[in-house]
Amino acid sequence: MQYEEYLRVAQVAGATVGADRATVTSAHNTIASRKAAVQAAKAALDQGLLNLSYTRIYAPAGGIVGKKTVELGQRIQPGQTLMAVVETEDIWVTANFKETQLANVRRGQHVTIHVDTFGCDYRGYVENLPGASGDRFSLLPPENATGNYVKVVQRLPVIIQFAPGQDPEHLLRPGMSVEPTVWLR
């Protein structure tokens, strides 16, 4: 009788161990499932952050919006022009001098730039001398007829760079009228 009772206790204990093993296996499966869910959530978060980064549009340079063609909430396509940004840091003047005025002009010479809008002078320097006259690069260059010996004085574009730090409020804008004076000595 004692033997049968010990046998029953052993069977109950064996069944309990089996049930506990099944519980442990189930817990391991649940843990693996939850780890997979965490990995999927991390992947979804990373994809969401990546998609969010695509909604930020960065200008290639600092400046002022000159022309805006997009409105809030509008859907846009890749490569679509949204606005024109006018640079305010790197400003220059393209001065069209007569070819007869360029005999002594050299790169790096100091320039005084009088801006008509403000009535004040800015400092600058000759950045670049032209490679050719403007008519050589035009869409339809002039073709002089045979026998036409009229000499026309050409205008050549000279790039004049403003000295840095003169326009802290960024008042200068493209298209303003200026009068540059190149100091030869």
User: Strand order within the widest sheet?
Assistant: 3-6-5-4-7
**SS summary, helix count:** 1
Shape: rod-shaped
CATH C-level category of the largest domain: Mainly Beta
Derived from helix and strand composition plus strand pairing, the structural class reads alpha+beta
- How many beta-strand segments? 7
Task: Estimate percent helicity.
Answer: 25-40%
In CATH, what is the homologous superfamily of the largest domain? Answer: Efflux pump adaptor protein, beta barrel domain
SSE string: HEEEEEEE
Strand proportion, as a percent range, falls in 15-25%
Overall mean pLDDT stands at 85
User: Gyration radius, to the nearest Å?
Assistant: 39 Å
Q: Give the N-to-C terminal Cα separation.
A: 127 Å
**Poorly predicted runs of 5 or more residues:** none
Domains (count): 3
What does this structure look like?
The chain has 185 residues and is α+β, with helices and mostly antiparallel strands. The chain has three domains: 1-56; 59-87, no CATH class; 89-182, Efflux pump adaptor protein, beta barrel domain (Elongation Factor Tu (Ef-tu), domain 3). It contains one helix and seven strands, in the order αβββββββ. The strands form two sheets. Strands 3-6-5-4-7 form a five-stranded antiparallel sheet, with no helix packed on it. Strands 1-2 form a two-stranded antiparallel sheet. Strand 4 and strand 5 form a beta hairpin.
Question: Can you tag this structure with a few keywords?
Answer:
single chain; 185 residues; alpha+beta; Elongation Factor Tu (Ef-tu), domain 3; 3 domains; 5-stranded antiparallel β-sheet; two-stranded antiparallel ribbon; 1 helix; 7 strands
